[in-house]
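Work through this protein:
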Amino acid sequence: MPIISEEARKTRIEEALRALEPDSERIPVQWQDTMKTFPVIRVPLDSVLLNPRSHRIRAQLESHPQRQLVLESPFSEKSQAVITALLRETEGYEKLKTNLTEEDQRDAGVVTRAGLLVNGNTRSVALQDIGKKYIRVAVLPGDATPQEIDELELRLQMKQELKQDYTFTNELLFVDELITHYNQSHERIALDLRWAASRSQKELNQGKERVCQSVRLLSLIRQLQ
């Protein structure tokens, strides 16, 4: 799919937001530690970009022969084609296509004001593959930071719904990034990933131990590589 300019994406998203009626659809999203609602718009599929930082494909991208291309120019047509191919290979992709064909898009994705998908990357590719032209997305505030976007992906993608599960290695990489890049505590990660069912000390200790185990396992995998 041809890549339109960032300015064109922003313009389309802003126009769609301005065209919304007061009673238009909004969805609740946990944002900055509080629950807020964000407006849902319908835009052409070429108005959104696949996220090269999606933890859905992090492990696959690390070992991909064109990894450097994606890192250096993530929003070029070639890089977006690499990400598209990786998403098509994820477990459950064919099931997702079937579901979208039969029921259309029931859950909105989430997108930044510049058109970068936070959630809904695989759905975007699947919609394209079944011949759809549009995608429904909730739009984040214009000042969303990379950390806020990553934390939101954590909350949205790790839910056990009709969404595909992360692969084991991608989950380990996600935990590592939350610790090394964003300085999140083991307790916070355990709660966000629902590895601690409650805030009781026993549950928290079990959740934190699972976080520690993930760190050790990723270290072992990297040593073996």
